[in-house]
């Protein structure tokens, strides 16, 4: 018989042990990876929300403008314009696909990374007197407020802000239909579960709470 190496019986036993360990550990590892991605994304929504709160404290404006000066508005602000997920979960709230497609948009970096909240796009036309945030005085832009230009969630998809409902945004300024504004990730399924409809408010049933496996942080709300 063999004097070196393994006998067939030994091989079978070793392979069986490996197979059992793999079966025990694989779901645990997969769960931990998913949990860490969720945790990372929760933390990032909080970081972005804090950056937007700083912008508001410094300038007096929420990030929703698009005309020259703070007069025009946008419906969605995109943390990465190139990776916005589209589509809705089954059983999603009313208008959920709007998170991926609706209305006028502007990149988040035009508010938090560049001082460029007016109609210009990208890094061009920053710091324009009378058009972008003031750079002097008590109320002024003190950014950048984020350390990179674009931000994706843990699944490589853009966060989206439903800026349409920021208090004061002329795109939808109706205090009889109060909404929450979120920094929102579509979550592990890359598909929107949260309502995005003028008719679904803080007071309706169902209301505008975060839905499905979406992950988000409320950053502002309309007073009712
Ligand atoms: Ca500008
Ligand atoms: Ca301009
Ligand atoms: Ca989702």
What do you see in this structure?
Helices cover 27% and strands 9% of the residues. The chain is of the alpha+beta class and 224 residues long. It has one domain (37-221). A five-stranded mixed beta sheet has the order 2-1-3-4-5. It is elongated, with a radius of gyration of 23 Å. The chain starts with 7 loop residues before the first helix and ends with a strand. The relative contact order is 0.19. The mean pLDDT is 93. The protein binds calcium ion (CA) (3 copies). Residues 116, 118, 120, 125-126, 128, 131-132 line the site of one calcium ion. The site of one calcium ion has 10 residues, from loops.
How would you summarize what this structure contains?
The chain is α+β, with helices and mostly antiparallel strands. It has helices spanning 8-59, 98-101, 109-112; strands at 76-78, 105-107, 160-161, 180-185, 215-221.
């Amino acid at each position: 018989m063999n004097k070196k190496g393994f006998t067939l019986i030994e091989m079978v036993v070793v392979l069986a042990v490996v197979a059992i360990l793999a079966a025990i550990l694989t779901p645990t590892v997969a769960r931990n990876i998913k949990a860490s991605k969720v945790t990372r994304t929760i933390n990032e929504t909080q970081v972005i929300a804090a950056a937007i709160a700083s912008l508001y404290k410094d300038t007096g404006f929420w990030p929703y403008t698009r005309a020259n000066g703070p007069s025009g508005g946008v419906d969605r602000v995109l943390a990465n314009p190139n990776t916005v997920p589209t589509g809705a979960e089954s059983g999603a709230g009313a208008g959920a696909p709007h998170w991926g497609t609706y209305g006028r948009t502007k990149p988040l970096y035009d508010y938090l990374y560049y001082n460029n909240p007016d109609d210009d796009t990208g890094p061009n036309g920053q710091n324009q007197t009378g058009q972008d945030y003031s750079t002097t005085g008590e109320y002024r832009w003190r950014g950048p407020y984020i350390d990179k230009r674009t931000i994706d969630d843990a699944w490589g998809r853009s966060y989206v802000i439903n800026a349409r409902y920021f208090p004061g945004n002329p795109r939808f300024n109706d205090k009889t239909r109060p909404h929450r504004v979120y920094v929102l990730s579509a979550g592990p399924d890359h598909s929107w579960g949260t309502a995005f409809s003028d008719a679904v408010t803080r007071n309706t049933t169902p209301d505008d709470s975060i839905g499905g496996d979406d992950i988000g942080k409320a950053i502002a709300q309309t007073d009712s």
